[in-house]
Amino acid sequence: MGAAESTSVLEDHQRLINRFTGKDAIPLDDAFWNELLAFPFPLSKLNPQEVDAATRQACAQLVHHNAWTGHFPKLLIHLIRELEGAGSAKELPVKAVNTVYFTRLFVKHLVELYSSEEIGRHLVMRGEQGAPADLLLPTVRALLAFVANTEVSAALYLLQLECVNLLLVMFATQLHAASLAASHLFLDAAMQQHDLAGPFVRRLLLLYMAQQPAPARLPLYTRTPEDGTAPNAGVLRRVGSSVASVFLLPYTAYSYLVSPPGTPQTPLANNSLLLLLVLVHFGHTNAANAAPEDEHTGEEGGGGSAGVDNPFRKALCTARDADFDAVDASMSPAGQFGAVVRVSYARLYDCLGACLKADTSTLLLYSLLHANPAFLEYVLVRTDLDTLLLPLLEVLYCAAARTPNQIYMLLIILLILSQDASFNANVHKLPLTGVPWYRERLLQRTSLGSLMVVILIRTVKYNLSKLRDVYLHTNCLATLANMAPHAHHLNAYAAQRLVSLFDMLAKKYTRLSDAAARAGPSPASLASGGPSAAAPEAGGGEGAEGVPTELHIYTDFLRIVLEIMNAILTYALPRNPEVVYALLHRQELFQPFRNHPRFYELLENIFTVLDFFNVRMDDSRLSVGEVSVERVLQVVVANARQWRGEGMKMFTELRFTYEEELHPEEFFIPYVWTLVVAQSGIPWDPGCITLFPNSQHADLQLEDIQNHDAYDVGYDAASDYADTPRESV
């Protein structure tokens, strides 16, 4: 559908649109309103950018005259009436679809250019008997109620989608506000609908889980190759570059936020999830910063920066398994399950696993695992953890093609899961017959736990060479540390990668130590009292001032890796002969650090193990002469069974837990709206977006990011993961 048809339809209606936006007031029940909204076919069939451009002047004219005519609140009343009568439609309710679409055009104009206070004045109805004075709450409630209470059918698919899109536009005051603390009248109105929050969240989850493609011949505009650039190409450039300066997200990554050609289009599922994320992260602050009365809501991280009581987040955080409830509801007190959202955890689990490559699904999974203890418990007891973890690990494997924000969220998900001892034990006992997407090496007869170790170490190496984000390092190492005491038959490749990780970090540490020595203070004194690896200022610095801070960080990283090795040797050595073999093969790496004040105690344990097995290897050589690789491993396996841990020092088990920052909304709200702009199909105006940094500054950041490929440490996946044969010790 091209510009000619868009222009033709609007020109045919121009007389009516002029009356609607003009200065003469038209009564609420005048026949004009039916005529205005009686477009010959759904407006959703037209190119949204062309419709938006063609109606911009009309929107401005409506705003100019609305205080006198009250036409905008009258339009909202007709919107409410159309929704009330459309829920049982058996055929496409064209008039209702057009009313919602037409309303969205004018709401978008208001949201882009005016404050919440100014918008509120345009929602007030004056001089009409029988009509509500303020249309804000009735309109928001009507939209929420329609979506929550309407089962999706082929006839109502488009109307559901348009209602979801209208709500997204209403809530986009966040996208255009001067600050996160600004007032958001539509979101504030939604937060008052406590009775609808649960059913609404349930419906959005059901729509997401259904992943229902758009019905055949649905009158919905779809971009074709002949259209050239994407509808939001200009905005995507703005958003991509802007977020690059906020989250270090390169613009090129945003090509991966759009569904690739040939994939089934599921606009209702996609936009429903976007809307859910917008709602649950509104007023989202750390639980430690929440009001005291929120402690008993069952919501982790509830509340908002201004004391927002978010019933949608509560509904998601307390959602329960519909299958479990069906069996056990009769055993519970009467009414206990009435107000609780119930969805099938099994369907949700499978859907998340199937869709985890999308940032939106990753963010939903994080929200559920972090804030819904029941869903976290359900995931932890699943026997098919590979359903969820294999897609997750594949995304981490393809980190270069994903957004750093998504990588960050996936690593946090792994950290949350690794806090559970049973999870750590189970992943090592879950066999994999193969990993077809892992290209550098043929992985056969491995375990899910070994694959996790390999991918996490690979992510550390990628981060060191490309992103250089200390928090990504910390999350990877924290997960490995949580898993270490439960390691069970790590394969040879995972064991080799663990030792090579120490080698890589040791080389980086040595360079920093040498630089610090040239700058003046001794490396030992610098390393003896550094801050934790998660310190906010730890980003590595340039020049003499930055070296000590980065040196402290890599000292901590090296110590964590040594603690990981130490935990495996202390608690699981007999079950991990390949780790012993890898340490024997590269034992010279540890010698330079044997007297280091931060490492010597941990290295004493490692050298105790090395000495034990070196003696056995010497005995084997004396008896049979030079030994082969296979013979070395046989000696290790045989003597690992006899290992009793004599001479080993016991250290407190290193455990990491995840906690959100004090103000997580500063991360999540821009992140969510980045996804909305990129994926919703709504033609956002880049010149009106204020949630992201100044466009000119962002473009300079983008150019710098795209042209900057020189890093301290090179990363070559092929060379790093070449399938080299095991060498003899």
From TrEMBL:
Matches recorded under InterPro entries: Dymeclin
Residue ranges the record marks as coiled coil: none
Keyword line: Lipoprotein, Myristate
GO cellular component annotations of the record: Golgi apparatus
Biased composition (Low complexity): 523-537
Superkingdom of origin: Eukaryota
GO biological process per UniProt: Golgi organization
Keyword hit for Hydrolase: no
Region (Disordered): 523-544
Keyword Lipoprotein attached: yes
Annotated PANTHER family: DYMECLIN
Family statement drawn from the similarity comment of this UniProt entry: Belongs to the dymeclin family.
Protein name: Dymeclin
